[in-house]
Amino acid sequence: MITRFTCSNFKNVDVDKMELGKVNLLIGPNNAGKSNFIRALSFAANMTSVSSNEDSGFLTEIRRNGSIEILRHGYKDSPVHLNWRILLGGRAAEYTLDFCFDEELNTFKIVNESLDSGEALHGKERAFNYFRFHDMNPGFGMFSTAYQIGDTNNKRIHVPARVDETGLRQFDKLVISNKNLLKNDYIRETMFTMLEELRSYFLKFYSYGSSQFDFEKVRQLQEPTAKDSRLTKDGSNFLSVYQYAKAVDSDFEERFLNKMQELIIDLKDIRIVEGLDKIGMKLLMCKSEYMLSEVSDGTIEALLLAILTSLPKEMAPTLLAIDEPEVNLHPAWQNILAKWLQTCGGFSQCFISTHSSDFLDAFTEGFKTGLVNIFVYDSAGKSTFKPLDRKRINIELEKGWLLGDLYRVNDPSMGGWPW
To answer: Which is nearest to 342 in space by CA: 325, 355, 329?
Structure first.
């Protein structure tokens, strides 16, 4: 679980030590930075999940974000700074990644990457550093060899490392190629385990945007042999993920059907059908039957969101980030989607950007009880987004107002309107 996030110079996003909870909402007008915030939050996860066939996961993610356009306008000479504070197996860790544009080589390079303990331990003034790359010596990284935090015999092992790829992705090769790393018990056992936990966390961090879903591809018949455990960003492998989830969890099919029946009251069943050596999905209503090619974009999006919130534990994300999930959904469906996101036990954390007042209404009780954190656009502040003032808003909520009501009347504290 990400408990805190810091970002600067990434497109139009600047946030400092934003404290996150289980359910987090981001509110703001168009061009406020909501989508860019999710891109920044997802940067390490997307970079880590890049295929091993790619030479550099770091540069692949840079290109995916527009290369030079990743830098805040007017700040070409300043590095991007990203920092995630994450709970891993009950331990807090901080992963930092700083990178900048190298004009001489016309590419990006990493200028600092580090993994530290989340807090100072054993009476030490500073957090314990597990590894650090390029900060003091570009092109090199150094690893701690301490057997425990506070060990006075902590010697550093220095190794050459690429500046166009992260240590997180290079670590395996570095250990294999360096005898000092390979023979050190602490590096092989303790640090390798921690890095694997961090990578596993990022690999199960799923981020989506409603604008990225390709409804036409979802409607197409698919090969029956595909076994996908993760929904692609365009949703095109929906049927393969559905089939795999059925195989993994015997209760998945019923759980998924129950969710869709909350939206479509006359839905009787959902079936996989075969034809032309391919598979498709059929929705059986009281009086009609519909293939995916016959249903609306809103229904397709509902199916995608239903599967993301119904996945078996083995397939569920560590964090689910969705940019404007309410798009194409009827206001009544938005209310139900909000309930799914607040009660789903599959993922440990979710982050949602929105500017729908109907969607916001359904998060009112969650906000009052502290389950939901809300961050609003702050055009006048140093940070792009700030926490919604609970003390100020609770006064209105106790009078019977809903969050969406305050948004509709352009309450200044909500920060969601463009004027």
So the answer is: 325
> What is the reported pTM?
0.89
Please give the Cα distance from 123 to 105 (Å, whole number).
Answer: 44
Burial of 253 (0-12, 13-18, 19+ CB in 10 A): middle
DSSP label of 106: T
pLDDT in tens, 267-319: 999 999 998 789 999 999 988 999 999 999 999 999 999 999 999 999 999 99
C-alpha to C-alpha distance for 39 and 372, rounded to whole angstroms: 21
Mark out the alpha helices in 27-99 (DSSP H runs).
34-41, 43-48, 57-64
More confident residue, 194 or 237: 237
Q: What share of the chain is helix, strand, coil (3-state, %, to 5)?
A: 35, 25, 35
Gap between the Cα atoms of 224 and 298, Å rounded? 25
Q: What angle do CA 129, 132, 136 make, to 5 degrees?
A: 120
User: Where do we find the tokens 């023979």?
Assistant: 183
pLDDT tens figures, 148-161: 555 555 677 888 89
Give the span between the Cα atoms of 36 and 417, in whole angstroms. 18
**CA distance linking residue 415 with residue 93, whole number of Å:** 32
- Alpha-carbon torsion 403, 84, 309, 231, what sign? positive
What phi, psi does 34 have (nearest 5°)?
A: -60, -50
Total residues belonging to the chain: 419
Longest dimension (CA), the chain: 75
Q: In the prediction, which pLDDT does 151 show?
A: 53
Tell me which residue of 252, 251, 254, 283 sits closest to 266, measured CA to CA: 283
Return the SS3 of 191.
helix
Q: In what order do the strands lie in the sheet with 289-291?
A: 267-275, 278-285, 289-291
How distant is the alpha carbon of residue 270 from its chain centre?
A: 29
Q: Is 77:130 a contact under the CB 8 Å cutoff?
A: no
217 close to 235: Cβ distance less than 8 angstroms: yes
pLDDT value for 146: 66
Cβ atoms of residues 41 and 71 within 8 Å: no
Q: Are strands 278-285 and 289-291 parallel, antiparallel or unpaired?
A: antiparallel
Q: What is the pLDDT of residues 68-108, one digit of tens each?
A: 999 987 677 789 999 999 998 788 999 999 999 988 888 99
Instruction: Tell me what pLDDT residue 123 has.
Output: 56
> Which tens digits make up the pLDDT trace of 176-195?
777 777 777 777 777 778 88
Residue 96: both structure tokens together: 């930092």
